[in-house]
Write a structure and sequence with these properties.
Helix content: 25-40%
Strand content: 15-25%
CATH topology of the largest domain: ECO RV Endonuclease, Chain A
Number of strands: 17
Oligomer: single chain
Shape: globular
Strand order of the largest sheet: 2-1-4-5
CATH superfamily of the largest domain: DNA mismatch repair MutH/Restriction endonuclease, type II
Radius of gyration: 24 Å
Largest sheet: 4 strands, mixed
CATH class of the largest domain: Alpha Beta
Number of domains: 3
Amino acid sequence: MNSPITGFPKMLYNPKDKNSIEDYAKKLLGKSLVDLKPAASKEVRKGKGSLGEKVEKFYFGYEPNSSPEPDFPDAGVELKTAPLKNIKKGLRAKERISLNSIDYTKEYKETFETSSFWKKNQLLLMMFFLHEAEVSDINFIFKYIFLWSYPEKDLLIIQDDWHKIVSKIKSGNAHEISEGDTLYLGACTKSSKSRNIEQPCNNSVKARKRAFSLKQSYVNSIITQYTNSVDYEPAVTSEELKNKPFEALITEKFEEFYGKSLEEIAQLLGVEVGKSKNKTAILCRRILGIKGRKIEEFDKADIQMKTVTLNQAGTPTEDMSFKQINFIDILSEDWENSYWHEALTKKFFFVVFEEFENQDYLKKVLFWTMPHQDLLRAKRFWKDTRNKIADNNFESFLKSSDGLDCFVRTKGTAGEVAKTANGSLQKKLAYWLSRTYIKSAIG
DNA sequence: GCATGATCATGC
DNA sequence: GCATGATCATGC
């Protein structure tokens, strides 16, 4: 134990026994920290992570620390308090879970088994609480508390993720690490205020400070597994993952249909796809053996599947639309927590068809993450758009003919309008990526 | 062939 | 009822 607080009652739990720790933690279910530990109200610290520190100090009775060991070293248990949000369908992860920060100078010398991530985070005591605006953290109610270890199949993907992150450090590209590089285990940026730091294999470019993290989408899957509300189907098996990386396995499943038309593929699979606008998306799921709507690994990794149709010149026939611009929300965003940044730092899965004599033929598929340089250009576009909205200037957004990667264009059902910050109404607009840019991305 | 404004189909 | 992904229709 790390320096127990003097006078703390002995043996509320056995710090060497994971089950004892879990049982003791579970006494907080349906309660807030201050319900059981009124003394916590004296602590003045606020902000992100402060509830976790208060739980450590007032509930478990040890001082928060930044040790490379798990919080309960003898039991191998790392404590994680994590916020939930309430949406229509129930409780969901409010954000990713940040784990230990990455020491670029050390991590790349390790194997997965000796890595800082694995040493500290192989067994997590999850303490999910419902976050509420305008409520102080000691009053948040704990909803789910349980020990979490990674299922074998997830762990195969997480190992691969760890190797991807480390290989960027090794190749001197720590400054180009993106959350879209990996599937479940991410390398998220630390506070935007922290200065860039040295990386070991590249003396000329500093890198953002990052921490290992479980992606928000993966945290959601932890919750749905715990609450038995899984609604997705797997595209690959553990056995397959032992032989090949996820991306290669998925690509293979599509390769056997390269050169075939939508109709031919449907026929070969013995499925009916109809004529709707989402027929391609349905067919893609069928190719992966998915009968329903959700693909387990795509869902957990938050991979954006996008279908692209090329004309005979090899240019996509359409630009690619994203969400509507929320004219009010964008004003309180900064770049790193903006919708557009989030949308572009995800991993994409492009399914590319080629149009020929009114038929669409499957040409290829690829996983893609936006390169760092392009993201910097997207940032300039986003700032321009945000500034114009802030100035109530809705007449001069960057548009398709400006020839940039990103532009603003209308979107929405017949004549729909949306509110702006000053209460006026404007035609609904969306973020778009130009077909020229998509062409260069899919190569 | 492309830029642009507009709208559809689906699902939640 | 509306957001989202996708596509259409028109004009040049």
